Amino acid sequence: MYPILFNYKFINIGSYGLMLGLAFYMAFLLTERELTIRGKDPELAYKLLLVIIPSAIVGAKLFHIFENMPEFLRDPKGMIFSGAGLSVYGGFILAFILSMILIRKNRENILEIFDITAPAMALAYGVGRLGCHVSGDGCYGITTSSFLGTAYPNGIVPTSAPVFPTPLFESFISFLIFIFIMKLRKREMPAGKLFFIYLILNGIARFAVEFIRLNPKAAFGLTQAQIIALLFMLTGIIGWILVVRRARTSV
Questions:
Q1: What is the mean pLDDT of the chain?
Q2: Is the whole-model pTM more than 0.90?
Q3: Does position 47 have pLDDT exceeding 60, yes or no?
């Protein structure tokens, strides 16, 4: 693994940061293109980028701290400024909230814009997870003796034992979801349905992969990420039903 790609004096360029930046940039380009195709103001993509980047990073760090409070209390400064420890779902949640506020201020329909950005979400998630793999940031799986086992001896959170490379699994699944969503977006459907489908698929993928992740159990034999994944799936199912029902009653 290569957590640091370039190091000169006080300048450090990490692989995770580079992949995260690439994920945001690719999502921005795709969103800008999709907005243009659908007759929306493409400048909204730039505004969303300025909101999502800081909110996703701050949300991811805050959620990780909340998830690992005992460690945070032992070394607050170390955890805050560590290159590791970014919870994807924490970043998702805060970014969703602030994005909704921005979209509403721009007098756009929130569900329509979320539909437009759904492919970009899947693409960015896949690219971002590649960053987790190449940096070895600790979000890998349990030890295994199978041919899939991968060691991260030089990672941010090193391990010499072969473990399941769960970031690669999530990345691969996310790219499949991206392809599926890109094809599905061509169909006529009520506003919000595409976004809710993405929530369901993302939740299913994360819920499944958590069974071979290192995360501790939080409640009911499930990890905290699995509980949030279930909420994503539940939100997606309820949202799907509501938008379809509303579309039928409005005809």
A1: 87
A2: no
A3: yes
- Cα(164)–Cα(180) distance, integer angstroms: 25
Paired with 85 in beta bridges are: none
Give the end-to-end CA distance of the chain in Å, rounded to a whole number.
Answer: 55
**Owner of token pair 């980047």:** 53
Reported for 95-100, long-range contacts at CB under 8 A and 24+ positions apart, including other chains, are: 95/51, 95/52, 95/55, 95/56, 95/59, 97/55, 98/51, 98/52, 98/55, 99/48, 99/51, 99/52, 99/55
Cβ-count burial 58-81 (b if 16+ within 10 Å, e if not): ebbbbbbbebeeeebeeeeeebee
Q: Are 223 and 216 in contact (CB under 8 A)?
A: yes
DSSP state of 87: -
Q: How far apart are CA 52 and CA 66, in angstroms?
A: 20
- pLDDT exceeding 90 applies to what percent of the chain? 58
Q: In this predicted model, what pLDDT tens digit does every residue of 178-200 receive, in sequence order?
A: 999 999 999 999 999 999 999 99
DSSP alpha helix (H) spans, the chain: 15-37, 43-67, 69-74, 76-80, 88-105, 110-135, 166-184, 193-209, 224-249
Q: Which residues contact 241 (CB under 8 A, 6 or more apart)?
A: none
Contact in structure between 233 and 204 (CB atoms under 8 Å): yes
Q: Could you tell me whether strands 159-163 and 11-14 are parallel, antiparallel, or unpaired per DSSP bridges?
A: unpaired
Measured in whole angstroms, the distance separating CA 93 from the mean position of its chain's CA atoms is: 10
